[in-house]
Amino acid sequence: MDELSAAERDTGAVIATRALTKRYRGGQLAVDGLDLTVPEGSVFGFLGPNGSGKTTTIRMLMGLIEPTSGSARVLGRPMPRSTRAVLPHVGALIEGPALYGFLSGRDNLLRYDAADPTADPRTRRARVAAALDRVGLTAAAGKKAKAYSLGMKQRLGLAAALLQPRRLLVLDEPTNGLDPQGMREIRALVRELASDGTTVFLSSHLLDEIEQVCTHAAVMARGRLITQGPVAELAAGARGRLVVTTPDPGDAARVLKEQGVTDVVVTDDRATGEPPEPPRDLAEVNAALVTAGVRVRGFGLQRASLEDAFVALTGEGFDVAG
Amino acid sequence: MSQAEDTSVRVTETRPTAPAARSVRRLWTLGLFRSELTTTFRRWRTLALLGVLAAVPVLVGIAVKIETSDGGGTGPGGGGPAFIAQITNNGLFLVFTALAATLPFFLPMAIGVIAGDAIAGEANAGTLRYLLVAPAGRTRLLLTKYATTMAFCLVATLVVAVSALTVGALLFPLGDLTTISGTRIGMGEGLLRALLIALVVAASLTGVAALGLFVSTLTNSGIAAMATTVGLLITVQILDQIPQLHAIQPYLFSHYWLSFADLMRDPVYWDDLTRNLGLQAVYAAVFGSAAWARFTAKDITA
Predict the structure, then answer these.
(1) Which residues of A touch B2 (CB under 8 A)?
(2) Closest A-chain CA to B2
(3) CA-CA distance, A271 to A275, in Å (whole number)?
(4) Distance of residue A317 Cα from the nearest chain B Cα, in angstroms
(5) For residue A211, pLDDT beyond 90
(6) Candidate from B7, B17, B133 with C-beta closest to A14
(7) Record's superkingdom (chain B) (predicted)?
(8) Which alpha helices (H) appear in B69-137, and where do they start and end?
(9) In whole angstroms, how far apart are CA B252 and each of B31, B82, B108, B118?
(10) Which DSSP symbol is given to A104?
(11) Which of B1, B39, B299 sits opposite A100 (nearest CB)?
């Protein structure tokens, strides 16, 4: 308790790691000097290509893996030393759901609930029923889990994370295997939980998903933290591109270059480029296009996405493994 | 707990349903043991193992019945498991015969399957990580697994004993019985000794249970852990048969297993029985500690 530094108390960080490092026995450096700060009440997106160390980090935060060096604090307490005190307040979905196929969905939840020594057995059935209801599995609760589709297993895994009111939810790829409707429901659920004050730590490889639901994000690549901060700031770091839709893309490209637009790329019926530097009124650029006889169908600035920010930060595509 | 609360004062305020502080109740920690028991005994594999064990006395009983139906006894020199010659006189002896027949291999193999699968099987299915973040607690989970394996030892032994008693009562006469020492004891005392023997047989399996649990903490493959445990069992049984190795044989967990027959002496001959139980305690302590040391320090990557 006395180890809780004043700084951590002030920032109200739900997760705080300092120089967190994990080197596996084979010598592979999975996580390298990670300084992660997840503010309380945030929906925190944890981004990175496969093999970038996200899951190893999550496992260290959950006390499943001992760090090689550095420290991790969850809810202000050191992990993995305080798993007994911390984890009852944490719901987790790690690397997909894992279920007992020969048990029904309901019995799976009853078992996971029984594993929590702080869970009151008198309210167990009611809490299990509520969790099933919350993820829309009430109708399938009596079915054996091995008969579940991947999406239903994913929902059941989420239900296990929601058996108790949690202060922190750690969700590793929660929409994996869900159809678009299921994805929307899970996103709505995450927003709902966040509005209740639960901090949500969400890892995903879907950038637009992070962009849609997260308030904060961190980007990892090759075991290192590249950046972290509010999503709006991260996306603002990358500049938008000017997009002109026209049947005359060649002429458009020429005019755009004359107007100071750089990095002009022509595709089918579009010409895109970096807006002129220093910034100027883009209406003038449009007027110049029209004056030059270019038939403009569409003209606009495409807002920078998180993906643009990611590519700008890592200098590589998102699916490249580290 | 108080500092952890500090960091989220706002959260607890906005969620009145959240209990201020959830505490660990000692009684509730038994919930995991109950859950573990029901989970284990609802696996078809467990039921299949028990079914095989229950079938052994049936086969032995029917074989003895057919063999002796022509009037001739199996005779004392006929070989086979202990007590088999007496079954035709008293069905209760089928209990002792069945235990003597299953103890060298069937029973420990079943224990090896359950114990080997205990941790490794959960790791294999990925359920181990969810139990641990629940948080089950590593020591608590390991103790629960060991207790469940012991419970299975007892249930498996009793299944053999009860099946044998039923078959024995159906096929053969019951009544007073003659001990190895030649004295006669009543049916009631005979039943009592049968129960005592079943308990000793179950206790004889605690060593191999601890060994299996330790192996189970070494791998993430349930099948590998089961195969290793059963392989070790067979190896030990073979080593115990090689006369040149008599120097190490007293330290093999199976060496005194058949000493349970000494409970049928009058008076009971305790020396080998206590040696057996002492040896099982040593195995349980050594491999239990090894399993604990391994499991509490292990990186859970499955």
Answers:
(1) 1
(2) A1
(3) 12
(4) 27
(5) no
(6) B7
(7) Bacteria
(8) 93-102, 106-125, 127-133
(9) 36, 21, 14, 23
(10) B
(11) B39
**What's the token pair of residue A291?**
């004056």
The pLDDT of residue A315 is above 70 = no
Per residue in A63-115, pLDDT (tens digit) is 999 999 999 999 989 988 889 899 999 999 998 899 999 999 999 999 999 99
Smallest CA–CA distance, residue B143 to chain A, in Å, is: 13
How far apart, in whole angstroms, are the C-alpha atoms of residue A309 and residue A314?
9
User: Domain ranges in chain A?
Assistant: 6-231, 241-303
- For the beta carbon of residue A192, count every other beta carbon within 10 angstroms: 11
Q: How many residues does chain A have?
A: 322
Question: Residue A276's Cα: distance from chain center in Å?
Answer: 33
Give domain limits for chain B: 35-297
Compute the nearest-CA separation of A249 from chain B (Å): 53
Domain A241-303 grouped into CATH 3.30.70.100:
yes
How far apart CA A144 and CA A128 sit, in angstroms, is: 16
pLDDT band at B6 (very low <50, low <70, confident <90, very high): very low
**DSSP 3-state of A241:** strand
Q: By CA distance, what is B22's nearest residue in A?
A: A118
pLDDT tens digits for range B212-234: 999 999 999 989 999 999 999 99
CB atoms within 10 A of CB A39: 16
Cβ <8 Å between B134 and A116: yes
CA distance B96 to B84: 8
Predicted confidence band at B14 (pLDDT cuts at 50, 70, 90)? very low
Q: How distant is the Cα of A290 from the closest Cα of chain B, in angstroms?
A: 56
Which is it for strands A43-47 and A37-39: parallel, antiparallel or unpaired?
A: unpaired
Q: Which are the contacts of A173, defined by CB distance < 8 A and separation ≥ 6?
A: A95, A96, A203, A204, A205
Q: Which residues of A282-318 are buried (b: 16+ CB within 10 A; e: fewer)?
A: beebbeebeeeebeeeebeeeebebbbbbeebbeeeb
Give yes or no for A300 touching B (CB within 8 A): no
Rounded (10°) CA dihedral A142, A146, A150, A156 = 40
ipTM: 0.83
Query: Distance of CA B253 to CAs B53, B108, B228, Å?
Result: 21, 11, 16
Q: How far is A280 from chain B (nearest CA, A)?
A: 46
Q: Write down the pLDDT at residue A322.
A: 37
Mutate to test the interface with A, among B6, B133, B139, B298 (most CBs of A within 10 A): B133
Nearest in space to A102 (alpha carbons), one of B43, B88, B219, B41: B43
A62 vs B: CB within 8 A: yes
Q: Give the CATH H-level superfamily of domain A6-231.
A: P-loop containing nucleotide triphosphate hydrolases (3.40.50.300)
Q: Is B235 exposed, middle or buried (0-12, 13-18, 19+ CB in 10 A)?
A: exposed
Sheet with A90-93: strands ordered across? A90-93, A168-172, A199-204, A43-47, A216-221, A224-230
Which residues on A lie below 8 Å from B300 (Cβ)? 59, 64-65
